[in-house]
Design goal:
The chain contains 17 helices and 21 strands. The protein has 469 residues and is α/β, with parallel strands linked by helices.
Length: 469
């Protein structure tokens, strides 16, 4: 491994794969760093090693990623899997751990394709063994073909809930119930975006068909589906034993050993914030995202963001964003002319525009409900440090309206996850009890290392330049 590259791409999802392959095709020396053992990111996780059964269950949208993987593998990109990046700098320096040691490399450009993550939402019992995200369950199946063999409840809002339900039914998993927390009234504000969404009628039809097939299968297997569900609660002594919820005045209760939850997808911005990218608040999906142009430019001249890390739009859109970023960097490094850039980027922009037609409708339809963070005082918010909602709320009501101040006082966000699991909830508690507009609340500040680094990795650091091992 060299010490310097034209461009360093962090993240081997659709955006990172497309971006690195495109840049390499234009003559740039590119390194791609990724935590996973195989390329694909979360959406195409383990795709190159997946069995025919896994491909059959996960469907054509998953298998379509093989084409992207093939193009990437043929490109002259230096690929470094199982590499944990824990610091990046605006000048292009990247610090990471791999093979038991830590190393620094530098690039003229950085492309952060960190992707998205499921929105962490605390609720009573969410720390119990047996409670996990829908995406986590999907990853277990992609990696190891694992699926529940004891009663499982699915709860939450958004397309991922129904997609995982479809997969579990195909696997003959013992689904006990599906609890949809989407407020039924949200369909009305979403309607104004329907004309644009209908320009991708086939895409919408696919989603409607998926949900309809899940409902039909649930009816055949006598699996109850409840909509407009609230007050989710996981109960058990040492692990999950029962799931409680309400629907109107009706109390719901299901015996289960697994609860899969999903309340939407948000950009994974930890590394972006650490490096210093400016961010913007989205009032519909209620998340911070980097302030970028369509080609991924940030406020930092050498740093670009590609894919769902800049706004959650899905795998195909991430791929197109990655290609646009690559072409832009190739132009800036004089590997293609302005005329070539315009010719090459125009069809990619058209494809991206087409992919985005349904997004305003989907974002409005599955916007976080108003009471999503109406947490009981005893609910644990910071899992690492055991900090409750009541303790955070009390500080906010005393006048503290900065996550960084709150963190310094009660360690909320100071654990191994560096706030990835609690910062959204802390932010919402501040916004809900301080009367400060969300866009004016200071974000949780991240300092390196943003991922845990062992003393052994630091002791074996080769910051002056990596060796060939």
């Amino acid at each position: 491994m060299k010490t310097r590259y034209d461009a360093i791409v962090i993240g081997a999802g659709p955006a990172g794969l497309a971006c690195s392959a495109e840049m390499a095709a234009r003559g740039l020396e590119v390194a791609l760093l990724d935590e996973q053992a195989n390329p694909g990111g979360q959406i195409y996780r383990n795709i190159s090693k997946a069995s025919p059964k896994q491909h059959a269950i996960l469907g054509e949208d998953y298998s379509a990623g093989m084409e992207l993987i093939s193009v990437f593998k043929e490109a002259p990109v230096e690929y470094f899997p199982q590499t944990r990046v824990w610091q990046a700098e605006p000048n292009g320096d990247v610090f990471f751990s791999r093979n038991g040691g830590s190393t620094k490399v530098s690039g003229d450009y950085l492309v952060l394709s960190t992707g998205a993550m499921e929105r962490p939402v605390p609720f009573p019992g969410w720390t119990l063994p047996g409670v996990m995200t829908c995406g986590g369950m999907s990853n277990l199946f992609k990696d190891s073909s694992l699926s529940p063999i004891e009663p499982v409840v699915l709860a939450g809002s958004g397309p991922l809930l129904w997609l995982v339900a479809e997969h579990l039914f195909a696997l003959e998993a013992p689904v006990a119930a599906i609890l949809d927390t989407t407020p039924q009234t949200q369909i009305f504000p979403a309607f104004k975006h329907m004309p644009r969404a209908l320009r991708r009628f086939g895409f919408l039809l696919k989603g409607v068909k998926m949900i309809a097939e899940v409902q039909i299968t649930a009816l055949k297997r006598k699996v109850p589906i409840y909509r407009g569900v609230k007050d989710l609660c996981a109960e058990g002594r040492d692990r999950l034993e029962r799931v409680q919820a309400t629907r109107g005045k009706k109390e719901l209760s299901f015996e289960a050993t697994t609860l899969l939850v999903s309340e939407g997808i948000i950009p994974n911005t930890s590394l972006l914030r650490q490096v210093g990218c400016a961010h913007t608040w989205d009032p519909v999906q209620r998340f911070w995202h980097p302030d970028v142009t369509v080609d991924g430019r940030t406020n930092l001249p050498a740093v670009f963001v590609a894919g769902d890390g800049n706004f959650v739009h899905g795998a195909k859109a991430a791929e197109f964003k990655g290609r646009l970023t690559a072409l832009t960097i190739a132009l800036e490094m004089h590997r293609i002319s302005r005329t070539e850039y315009l010719e090459l980027s125009a069809p990619v922009r058209r494809q991206l525009d087409r992919e985005l037609f349904p997004r305003p409708f989907i974002d409005a339809m599955y916007a976080p409900r108003k009471d999503l963070y109406s947490l009981a005082d005893e609910t644990i918010v910071c899992r690492c440090e055991g900090v409750t909602a009541g303790r955070i709320r009390a500080l906010v009501e005393e006048g503290y309206a900065d996550h960084n101040e709150i963190k310094a006082m009660i360690r909320c966000g100071m654990g191994p996850c560096q706030g990835r699991m609690c910062s959204s909830a802390v932010f919402e508690l501040i916004a809900g009890h301080s009367n400060i507009p969300p866009r004016e609340i200071r974000q949780h500040r991240l300092r390196p290392p943003i991922k845990p680094v062992s003393l052994g990795e630091l002791a074996n650091a080769n910051i002056g330049g990596p060796d060939e091992s």
